[in-house]
Description:
The chain is mainly α and about 150 residues long. Helices cover about 80% and strands about 0% of the residues. It has helices at about 15-30, 35-45, 50-65, 70-85, 90-100, 105-150. It is elongated.
Amino acid sequence: MTQLPYAVDAETPLNPAELSVLRAQYEKEGDMVGLQTKFNYAWGLVKSNVRTDQHLGVMLLSEIFRTSPERRRECLYYLALGNYKLGNYGDARRYNDLLLDKEPANLQAANLRSLIDDKVAKEGLMGVAIISGVAVAAGVIGGVLLRNLGRKR
């Protein structure tokens, strides 16, 4: 669990009954779904711990972001959060930075920035460790192969 109080959305999903209510309303409205209903459902999906839900939530929020300029600001945080949860850290940072440009004192976005930066640093270090491990293994295998070739001559 995170130590950042304003980033609680990153790790607090709705319970299944709450998400079910949002899904039922969204499906009930069908092709004529209202913007608020769509946003509420996307919000619930992004908060989910289920990857397919998160992906659908980001997709719905992206549609709102593209088609409703008056709702862009409120989509930014949840687009950032959804992309963070999906591991799309570049997109998460981009949306979060857009929000922080508009609202520099937004503590929720500032805390999400810290989560994104920490995750990128952690995964970057893991990537370096993996690459280093592969390089060492390749060096050992190459050394053994060269030694065996030298013996055959």
